[in-house]
Every structure is written in C-alpha cells, then in structure tokens.
Amino acid sequence: MEFMTELPLSELIITATQLNDSQADWHFHLLTPMCTLNAKPQYALVLEDIGTSKNYVSYQAIKPFAASNQLAKMLHGSGMIDPTGHIKAAELAPDEKPIYNHARLLTDQQRPWHHHMLFPNCAYNKHAPKWTLLFEDQSDTQVTSLVSDTEPTLLLTGLEQLFYRR
C-alpha cells in the first residue's frame, strides 16, 4: 500500500469507530510480521477509509488480538467471529473447500495461519472489482488466493470462527 498514516492503536480504534458510526465504507486488515502484505517485521493493524481513500496503520510488537476482535465485530457482527460456531463444510463451493479444510487442519495442529478478505475496493486487491480471499499458511509461506464475483461469505465465516478460536 502506497501511503498510510501511522497512528497509535487507540487512535486507530477511535477512527474505525467513528467511520462505523457514520456508516462510512471501511474495512481493516491484521498483518502478521511474516504476511506477504506487510513490509515491516511487526504486526500491523491497517484501517482503510474507502470514502476518503485514507489508510491508517498501527504497528505493534505483539499481536493486537483484542483490537482486531473489536474491529471484526464492528465490521462483520459478532456472529461471524463466534469461536464456538461451526459452518458446514459440505455447503462450501468446491473451490472453497480446500482452503477451509487446510485452515481446520492447521488450527487442529496449532500451526500459524491467517487470511485476508480483500474487498473489491481494497487497496491491496489486485483483482478489483472482484473479491479476493488470501489464505497464508505461515509454516511454509504458502499463499492461496480465491478470486470471485461475490463475497465468499460462508468461507469467510468459517475462517473467522477458526481464527478467533485459536
């Protein structure tokens, strides 16, 4: 991403809350130090304000899990990130099942992974105006992408539930 304003974590959360309260078009990313989208060897919480094309980042030495959880609830609602929830893998599209099954396996093995939902208007999305889901297996730096015309909501729900279960 070309330019991001660096903010303390508390200010980034306040900015996200203001965007959410005003029903602005926004989303966020949690980047790990090894993430292919991250240029720095730190955790990064990135906030994209789509309406103004302003992007904000807060770099952290440790994973800002609570802040990420708070932003995910604001963006998606608490049901999507319910760690006790389970989707039915049989209901996933054929191209979604390998990603979900890989995430389940890595979660069961307590191996690191993460994912990104790149909205059609996301600064990281090289396939706009399509939706792009990136899945990163951090143990072998494998990146899998799923590009689709519609948001892969069921897959995203399953991945979010697994991610916040860890």
Which terms summarize this structure?
166 residues, three-stranded antiparallel β-sheet, four-stranded mixed β-sheet, single chain, Signal recognition particle alu RNA binding heterodimer, srp9/1, alpha+beta
Give the termini separation.
28 Å
Percentage of residues in strands: 25-35%
Query: Which structural class is indicated by helix and strand composition?
Result: alpha+beta
Largest sheet: 4 strands, mixed
The CATH topology label of the largest domain is Signal recognition particle alu RNA binding heterodimer, srp9/1
CATH C-level category of the largest domain: Alpha Beta
Strand tally:
7
Number of helices: 4
**What's the CATH architecture of the largest domain?**
2-Layer Sandwich
- Count of the separate structural domains: 2
Mean pLDDT score: 91
Order of helices and strands: EHEEEHHEEEH
Query: Low-confidence spans: pLDDT under 50, at least 5 residues?
Result: none
Kindly describe this structure:
- This protein has 166 residues and is an alpha+beta fold.
- The chain folds into 2 domains: 72 residues, Signal recognition particle alu RNA binding heterodimer, srp9/1 (2-Layer Sandwich); 77 residues, Signal recognition particle alu RNA binding heterodimer, srp9/1 (2-Layer Sandwich), CATH 3.30.720.
- The chain contains 4 helices and 7 strands.
- The protein has a 4-stranded mixed β-sheet with strand order 1-4-3-2, with helices on one face. A 3-stranded antiparallel β-sheet has the order 5-6-7, covered by helices on one side.
- The protein is globular and about 40 Å long.
- The two termini are 28 Å apart.
